[in-house]
Design goal:
Largest sheet: 5 strands, mixed
Structural class: alpha/beta
CATH architecture of the largest domain: 3-Layer(aba) Sandwich
CATH topology of the largest domain: Beta-carbonic Anhydrase, Chain A
Radius of gyration: 19 Å
Distance between the termini: 54 Å
Bound molecules: zinc ion
Number of helices: 6
């Protein structure tokens, strides 16, 4: 079955058993948000015990505190009342395997999917590519603990984020499913009023 058919079939089954979820309130019932990576191995609903209606989950490549992630977090507290946020990066993240220069080189070369080898990503496509990648900050990661701490610090320092929000920093271990605290991040993320 093609992916499209698989998804629509799964959705049909889901909707048939939707039950009381149709009357859930808009604001997240448990008052918190998670910013995490889009990596397919991570399922925040499972690793953090979420049901529909419980929490906001904001995902992007790396789980980075990009301007757009912060936009979502600000909406999350200002309009929908969340009080605690988690920044959760993870081991073996693809964002550790390239740099801005590498990504820009790959995209300048072609728009085909690159191959990942021992030496990192290399391009296997035929051009043309595009120089547009030079204008994007890809927010790559060289050290997970530092990226979590940097992102928590950036969120806490943001003028639209009130001091009373607590931000916790964790690394999800893809080999065990466990969340490991980044103490420097959690300490930087303490609510201060
Ligand atoms: Zn990742």
């Amino acid at each position: 079955m093609a992916v499209l058919d698989e998804v629509l079939k799964a959705n049909d089954d889901y909707a048939k058993n939707f039950g009381e979820k149709g009357s859930l309130a808009l604001p997240p019932a448990r008052g918190f948000a998670i910013l995490t990576c889009m990596d397919a191995r991570l399922d925040p609903a499972k690793y953090a015990g979420l049901a529909e209606g419980d929490a906001h989950v904001i995902r992007n490549a790396g789980g980075r505190a990009s301007d757009d992630a912060i936009r979502s977090l600000v909406i999350s507290y200002k309009l929908l009342g969340t009080r605690e946020w988690f920044v959760i990066h993870h081991t073996n993240c693809g964002m550790e395997f390239f740099t801005d220069d590498v990504m820009r080189g790959l995209l300048a070369s072609s728009l085909e999917t690159a191959a990942l080898g021992e030496e990192g990503f290399h391009d296997v496509g035929s051009g043309p590519g595009s120089a547009e990648a030079n204008y994007i900050d890809w927010l790559t990661i060289s050290d997970q603990a530092s990226s979590v701490a940097d992102d928590v610090a950036r969120i806490k320092a943001h003028p639209l984020v009130p001091d009373r929000i607590a931000v916790y920093g964790y690394i999800y271990d893809v080999t065990t499913g466990r969340l490991v605290e980044v103490p420097a991040a959690t300490s930087a993320g303490r609510a201060t009023e």
